[in-house]
Amino acid sequence: MFVRGLKRKCFDGEEDIEGTLAGIKAIPSYNLQRQSLLDMSLVKLQLCHMLVEPNLCRSVLIANTVRQIQEEMTQDGTWQMINAQSTGQASLDRLVSTDILCRSSRDQAEGKHVPAYGTFSKDFENDQAQDSSETMSTASAVQAPRNLQSNVWEMENTQENKGNFQKSLDQIFETLDNKSPNSVEDLFSEVDNSYYDLDTMLTGMMSNTKMGHCDSLETFSSSTNTASNSNCKSDLNDLDHIVEILVES
Amino acid sequence: AADIISTVEFNHSGELLATGDKGGRVVIFQQEQENKTQSHSRGEYNVYSTFQSHEPEFDYLKSLEIEEKINKIRWLPQKNAAQFLLSTNDKTIKLWKISERDKRPEGYNLKEEDGRYRDPTTVTTLRVPVFRPMDLMVEASPRRIFANAHTYHINSISINSDYETYLSADDLRINLWHLEITDRNIVDIKPANMEELTEVITAAEFHPNSCSTFVYSSSKGTIRLCDMRASALCDRHSKLFEEPEDPSNRSFFSEIISSISDVKFSHSGRYMMTRDYLSVKIWDLNMENRPVETYQVHEYLRSKLCSLYENDCIFDKFECCWNGSDRQVEFLSLCTSNLSNIVMTGSYNNFFRMFDRNTKRDITLEASRENNKPRTVLKPRKVCASGKRKKDEISVDSLDFNKKILHTAWHPKENIIAVATTNNLYIFQDKMN
């Protein structure tokens, strides 16, 4: 049906699932499907490094979808118990496999780390810690992918976390305001706004016109992290443009 | 690829057809004058002018590139020999003048033909320069540049029926421009706190006859009609068009597929048409609580929404259009009396669909060189949603979702349509007897 001949599909019609999930007899439970949709949505919203401003309409629609799922999960109590057991394992595997897919699909992905699913857990970590944090610099978000991944699944969900999740989602849109990024207040605020600074946010989202599962799973790198290739590339472009201005003036 | 077509628009006479592409180019086609000896064929469209409308830019403040892709082209009505059109990318709107030059002056006294200056002492006689014919040259020159008025991405431009003003809409704001001077903002839905943002503007259009009325559609499937006479900032709508949700079809994707990708008034201005992901709806401006007609474009995709969300196809923005205004359309051999009676929109697999409002019949056609020989009648296609696939039917799973027809246009006076696939423009006309 789609370009890359993906076997993995979402819960589209029972007849499809039986064909594609070879060897698995049971149809995935609603909860698992819903969790899978949530994961996919968060990945779509993740902040990847892109040169072009993201599509606001798409971002808003995905964020609204995430909120809907979250609300439903809260209502039926599953938000309280995202378990790390059977579903957690399956989800981890899926994340890993998509990471591998992601690496092979993009030229500039060499050397990059895990999808920014981890970044959302980072915020949970921060808020869970309850200290008025020193800001975790955005560079640290690119560390040890395994730690971040496991954090997501081990996290115990409380009402607080739900609220924080909501907040981190909202921050994505907050930064579309013309706030000056990395202002002094941001530096010392409880929430790590520097991660969601304007540059990172706007360069993060894809204006994705391509087909295929992988294309939406850009690996994360922050604009402040100079270690990654694409950042270097962007810095070079910046440099060229700055040189142009200097020369012209 | 840079030549992905991103917009298609006939001018008011239908003689010219403009396309914009991802590389910022505008290509204008011109219809050949009808050949008197060959009365059975209408003129073909040939390239008339090509120019670079927009270049890629870099926003230094945000460290982002601004795409040169042309989002919309709108023609101004012709007032003199030259043609004018508005073309826009995400941030900047430009007014272009397209003029023909088929004569040039010759016989200057002080200049040679190649432009070099003559030594005045060698001039012994005087002559009057005259215009001599030359090969037709079509020149495009930018007359106005309307910049720095949109923080977000421009999705629509619409010229007012007064032909002096136009509107431009981005995700959160709509601005009104005078073609001579700069703009003012007439709609602003940006929340004070961006955390509260849940809805964006997706399309906007002026009413064809009432120069103070316009509509804009949203990502939540609503359409608001505004009257500029009511207040300077049209934050309050005069009318809100919204269909209540069908609870039996509710899913996590309901909102996304309700997002309106295009809105177009009928020629009379009595109706408007909206396109959402799966359907086309016709609204009577006098009835806000539901559309008067709904046409399913590709309902078989409803069970595939999750996959389409996964590969982002669910965010594809399909446009729609009415048939041309002056001619009554004979559709499938049936005469019709309602002037705005056919609606057309695109789908996947290079399919496009037409719906006849009077007979309620519909047809699926394909824009593809492989499957249609030139000058033959297009064969209707059918998608097999489920069950046994009949011969000549195509199953949903073999549809190519890379081949999408987002942009279509209908000649304003004749039954000629322009259909843009990803890289190609197809022009079809009805069979003349």
From TrEMBL, chain A:
Entry's Gene Ontology cellular component terms: nucleus
Record Pfam families: SERTA (PF06031)
Positions of the SERTA domain: 30-77
Protein name: SERTA domain-containing protein
Source organism per UniProt: Chloebia gouldiae
Automatic annotation (TrEMBL), chain B:
Organism the protein comes from: Chloebia gouldiae
UniProt name for this protein: Serine/threonine-protein phosphatase 2A 55 kDa regulatory subunit B
GO molecular function annotations of the record: protein phosphatase regulator activity
Keyword rRNA-binding: no
SMART domains with a match to the protein in the record: WD40
Database matches in InterPro entries: PP2A_PR55, PP2A_PR55_CS, WD40/YVTN_repeat-like_dom_sf, WD40_repeat_dom_sf, WD40_rpt
Family statement: Belongs to the phosphatase 2A regulatory subunit B family.
Gene Ontology annotations for the cellular component aspect, listed alphabetically: protein phosphatase type 2A complex
Keywords tagged on the record: Repeat, WD repeat
Gene3D superfamilies referenced in this protein's UniProt entry, alphabetically: YVTN repeat-like/Quinoprotein amine dehydrogenase (2.130.10.10)
Domain of life of the native organism: Eukaryota
